Sequence to fold (123 residues):
Amino acid sequence: MKTQVSALAKTQVSALAKTQVSALAKTQVSALAKTLFASLALAAVVAPVWAAPRTVILSVPGMTCAACPITVKKAISKVQGVSKVAVTFEKREAVVSFDDAKTSVQKLTQATADAGYPSSVKN
Fold:
């Protein structure tokens, strides 16, 4: 009789333990899924899928002295989304890397024009 009670008790304890482990596993999976979802949602907000880095070469023919590139570089660098600017007097051009989700070529050419140096995209 003790053997039967002991076997029954072990079976019930084992079933209860499995249920608790299963419930714990479901809770952990649920928490992990929520964390993953929150991370993906944040990534979607912070870095939109359509955002892409671009580089454009602007022709700036109005630069007439070695100091002009400094002014052009400062003007372009102030545009939100610009990550890199290299201006050369000899070629009279500016190579600009930018995030096209934050700015556009039109805003870059407007910045140079506002600084007194109209520019256009070099082909």
